[in-house]
Amino acid sequence: MSRAFAALADPTRRDIVARLSDGDATLTEIAEHYDVSIQAVSKHLTVLESAGLISRTRRAQARPAHLEAEVFDLMNGWIERYRRRAEQRYQRLDAVLADMNAEENPTDSTEQGAAS
């Protein structure tokens, strides 16, 4: 997974992934969108392929790149797990801060309770 995140650290590779989310494309088709050499785009594809984010198959003379969605599902699961943990910590912090605020301003909480 580290290789996948490292591969996505580059904005050009993220853009290539975004383009491939619309469908498979050959090196030439991908390179049309960038002001860099075909060799540079090929290196980007090699990095993405080494990270397992794309695969390339041979279809006649062409080697279209294909986005490997399963890898993104794994990455998303990993991110979601840590997002939930962070959310729980923030909820606990909110509760602590609310308690501290209630202790410092006891009249505010009684006034709010009376207004309800």
UniProtKB/TrEMBL annotation:
SUPFAM superfamilies, from UniProt? Winged helix' DNA-binding domain (SSF46785)
**Domain called HTH arsR-type: residue spans:** 1-86
Q: Name one Pfam family in it.
A: HTH_20
Q: Name one GO molecular function term.
A: DNA-binding transcription factor activity
CDD domains, alphabetized: HTH_ARSR
Look up the domain of life of the source. Answer: Bacteria
The protein's name is: ArsR family transcriptional regulator
